[in-house]
Design brief:
Layout (H helix, E strand, L loop, with lengths): L2 E6 L2 H12 L5 E10 L2 E9 L5 H31 L7 H13 L4 H15 L7 H16 L11 H4 L3 E6 L6 H15 L4 E6 L6 H12 L2 E5 L2 H9 L6 E5 L8 H13 L4 E7 L4 H10 L7 E5 L8 H10 L3 E5 L8 E3 L2 H9 L10
Parallel strand pairs: 4-7, 4-8, 5-6, 5-7, 8-9, 9-10
Antiparallel strand pairs: 1-3, 2-3, 10-11
Helix pairs in contact: 2-5, 3-4, 4-5, 5-13, 7-8, 9-10, 11-12
The protein binds guanosine-5'-diphosphate and magnesium ion.
Magnesium ion (MG) binds next to α7.
Length: about 375
């Protein structure tokens, strides 16, 4: 058996490095303080080195990044071509193929009409052989403009503000709330060195608190469980020295108005600065709309779009985000903590809807 040793100034850092390279369920053979070298205390984690998919995933990501760059250049060139083009015939074929692609991606019908109208205006001026490329570029810019996005939240630290930034996470069951919270906690704790706290509010489901405590242990982040609004407020009071406190809430069925009211009461009790509404890609347009409406009492300020890797109908999310009136702040596209999260990018989302390949030609 091959083993790998991680040595760091803190247990959390050593464990984090090990999990980052070997995955969340790596076998830990030894973890603890290390005979001190000089005056500094060190910690070590020894894990079993199995062949993991991490390297190939990195390679795939790099390839994806190159493909995105190529698409970006192609789109820019297509736009340039359009500007230089002379008036010509309209191409119903390119528009029909584009509309079919958008419908296949569950973009709401009114938004399909909007995109097609914008594209038609630009095709009027295009030559026949470049219709699809120009339709693709025009659709890309029309779709990009339809998706509201915001900068991700960047906590400034309690020293600057005198209190923790409090961020609630709400949404239906199983959409990725707890996973997303762990990704954010990890980024802020490990990458930015902030003091992070987690409150597991109303975590009635067996295992829900345990899931958070596991992340808490790995990240060196305190996790307090609480039941009801006043207990949540007490938990927050115990974390007043933190830079940022994340409040996890249990999922509720979107028809469960009473329970959603309880979640809203908890979030009010801790005076949240922001509430993230988590919406999954792998969900129907109808279910997403119902969730957006049902969770309005929790007063969300931004959306997080999860499970983009599992969805074939991303257009439905454009409709849902617009309906919520809360811009998207992050996208997630996998289960891996903390890797599979990125800042929301409207152009990137439009590209995912249209497909990254050869334009709209083969898309229907
Ligand atoms: N494929 C994929 N799975 C995810 C993503 N985010 C979370 N999950 C998985 O979805 C399941 C439910 O996640 P969890 O965070 O417990 O959802 P919660 O009930 O909303 O807190 C877990 O198996 C996660 O690993 C994502 O972006 N992509
Ligand atoms: Mg959860």
């Amino acid at each position: 058996m091959t083993t790998v040793r991680y040595i760091a100034d803190s247990m959390a850092e050593a464990m984090f490095a090990a999990r980052r390279n070997h995955g969340m369920d790596v076998r830990v053979l030894r973890a603890g303080p290390r005979a001190s070298r000089g005056r500094r205390m060190a910690f070590e984690v020894v894990v079993e080195a199995r062949v993991t998919a991490t390297a190939s995933r990195r390679a795939a990501r790099a390839a994806l990044a190159r493909a995105v760059m190529a698409a970006r250049i192609a789109a820019r060139e297509a736009t340039g071509t359009l500007e230089a083009a002379h008036p010509g015939a309209r191409d119903a074929g390119a528009l029909a193929r584009l509309a079919a692609r958008l419908r296949a991606q569950s973009l709401p019908e009114d938004l399909v009409a909007h995109v097609i109208a914008s594209v038609r205006g630009r095709l009027d001026a295009a030559a026949a052989e470049e219709m699809d490329a120009i339709a693709h570029a025009a659709a890309l810019s029309a779709l990009t403009a339809l998706m509201p996005v915001s900068e991700p939240i960047a906590p400034r630290g309690a020293a600057a503000t005198g209190r923790p930034l409090v961020i609630g996470v709400a949404g239906p069951t199983g959409v990725g709330k707890t996973t997303t919270l762990a990704k954010l906690a990890s980024i802020w704790r490990i990458d930015r060195g902030l003091r992070v706290g987690i409150i597991a509010a109303d975590a009635y489901r067996v295992g829900a608190v345990e899931q958070l405590r596991t992340y808490g242990r790995i990240l060196g982040v305190a996790v307090h469980a609480s039941e009801g609004p006043s207990a949540a407020a007490e938990a927050l009071a115990r974390m007043s020295d933190r830079d940022v406190v994340l409040v996890d809430t249990p999922g509720r069925g979107h028809r469960d108005a009473a329970r959603i009211g309880e979640i809203a009461a908890v979030l009010r009790a801790v005076h949240v600065d922001e509430t993230l509404l988590v919406l999954p890609g792998a969900s129907s347009a109808r279910a997403l709309e119902e969730s957006v409406d049902a969770f309005r009492p929790t007063a969300p300020t931004r959306t997080v779009l999860t499970k983009l890797d599992e969805s074939e109908g991303l257009g439905a999310l454009v409709g849902a985000v617009r309906r919520s009136a809360c811009p998207a702040a992050w996208f997630t596209d996998g289960q891996e903590v903390p890797d599979d999260i990125e800042r929301a990018d409207a152009a990137e989302f439009a590209r995912r809807i249209l497909g990254r390949g050869e334009g709209t030609a083969g898309a229907a």
